[in-house]
Specification:
It is a single chain. The protein is mostly helical. It is built from six helices and two strands, in the order αββααααα. The chain has helices at 2-37, 64-87, 97-112, 123-150, 155-162, 169-174, and strands at 48-51, 54-57. The chain has a two-stranded antiparallel ribbon with strand order 1-2. β1 (48-51) and β2 form a beta hairpin. α1 (2-37) packs antiparallel against α2, α2 runs antiparallel to α3 and α3 (97-112) packs antiparallel against α4 (123-150). The longest helix is centred in the N-terminal third of the chain and has 36 residues, at 2-37.
Length: 177
């Protein structure tokens, strides 16, 4: 019996160590976001910029520095929203898909099209996502309150019941496809 308890104790130590490592990585990324944002200052203020990935030619912004500033304005909130989504333990975390979709779209548009009117009438692209996410959240909430009225469960117990808990980040991503 003691050997069996030791075996489970060692597994708990390993999972605890992974949680600490994962938490440390996430905390470091969150703490580094101001530095990630200000990386655009190292981009030259020229229309053409040679990088190790190839040449970037800024058409509409007329400055690679401005183009990377616009990208940073979209990428940093996207990164923070993704971290929030993958670490959130509440039942409503699916609502975060709307800003994630919005910032993702804006990142792609800001890089690919070098558009003059970047944030104009983009809400039309998010209506289908909102049409799925909002009713889903409302239905989950309605089920939770229905169960509260029928049973003597606390809100925390209901959140646990409705929580989908994949074991990995890839598991969390794959549950949507």
């Amino acid at each position: 019996m003691t050997k069996e308890n030791l075996k489970f104790h060692q597994q708990d130590k390993k999972s605890y160590g992974r949680k600490i490592l994962t938490g440390s990585i996430v905390a470091t990324i969150v703490a580094a976001t101001p530095f990630l944002f200000y990386l655009y200052e190292y981009v030259p203020d020229t229309q053409e910029w040679d990088t190790i990935f190839g040449k970037y030619y800024s058409i509409e912004y007329e400055s690679a520095n401005v183009a990377m500033w616009v990208l940073a304005m979209k990428f940093v909130p996207l990164l923070l929203s993704l971290i929030w989504f993958f670490t959130c333990k509440h039942w409503w975390y699916h609502a975060l898909l709307v800003p994630i979709a919005m910032f993702s779209y804006q990142c792609v548009v800001s890089l690919n099209f070098d558009a003059r009117y970047l944030d104009v009438a983009d809400i039309i692209w998010f209506v289908p996502i909102m049409a799925i996410v909002f009713p889903s959240i409302y239905l989950i909430r309605a089920k939770m309150f229905d169960k509260i009225n029928d049973h003597d469960k606390t809100m925390e117990e209901l959140e646990e019941e409705f929580m989908i808990k994949p074991k990995s980040v890839w598991g969390k991503i794959s549950q949507y496809f």
